[in-house]
């Protein structure tokens, strides 16, 4: 496709509906200390959104703010056009939002199966179907349903956590560093799973430390810096943006 053809198709291509909208959000943990500073982000129907940025930029805080775990002080968050600012996590789960936190995301003393069943506590009907769906995406878990989650590696726990979030059949998935602590081969695998989940129709917002890989697979990305959305664009645009490379991707962006 030539540049002019792609520009033309970009003009006529309708944008999907906004599923998640974070509108100038300010949020923090301690009184008087804002971690997010007028931060904005949009995820449209079916998009895979990547969030990258330096340690401490507020990436996890942004996901927690969407999921009602950090108090939003100013600004607004919407889900399918409905305001959900500071709505509690259990209400958000009931509205179809799943969240996989960065750490402590499984119940170590429970088996894999019990962890997955915990994910269905609000919706016990359809357990069998959901279990089938997630063990198709994560077949290695399906074979070890009776094993205690505490005996799994970090990467395997991340898979259990992702599967648990999928048990409710969410239409939005918030993922905090799904590839953390994995070997390069396992990281690729984790990204493939995320892509597969997204292709099944789940609008996905993924925070990633592995910035280059994240931008390669996401539809659009956001670079967070000091609590603000410093840069946004398609994954490809960000990967090729000299400022983003220089500041956030280092030499990794150049190969
Ligand atoms: N529970 C908390 N109480 C107080 N401050 C916190 C808390 N959690 C995070 N912070 C602070 O908020 C800032 C942003 O943290 P956050 O975890 O959102 O960063 P991040 O971009 O996810 O970083 P990383 O890449 O290391 O995961 C940091 O300065 C951190 O110290
Ligand atoms: Mg984090």
TrEMBL record:
Family: Belongs to the ABC transporter superfamily.
Keyword ATP-binding applies: yes
ABC transporter domain residues: 20-251
Organism: Agromyces cerinus subsp. cerinus
Keywords associated with the record: Amino-acid transport, ATP-binding, Nucleotide-binding, Transport
Gene Ontology molecular-function annotations: ATP binding; ATP hydrolysis activity; branched-chain amino acid transmembrane transporter activity
PANTHER family: HIGH-AFFINITY BRANCHED-CHAIN AMINO ACID TRANSPORT ATP-BINDING PROTEIN LIVF (PTHR43820:SF4)
One Pfam family named in its UniProt record: ABC_tran
Protein name according to UniProt: Amino acid/amide ABC transporter ATP-binding protein 2, HAAT family
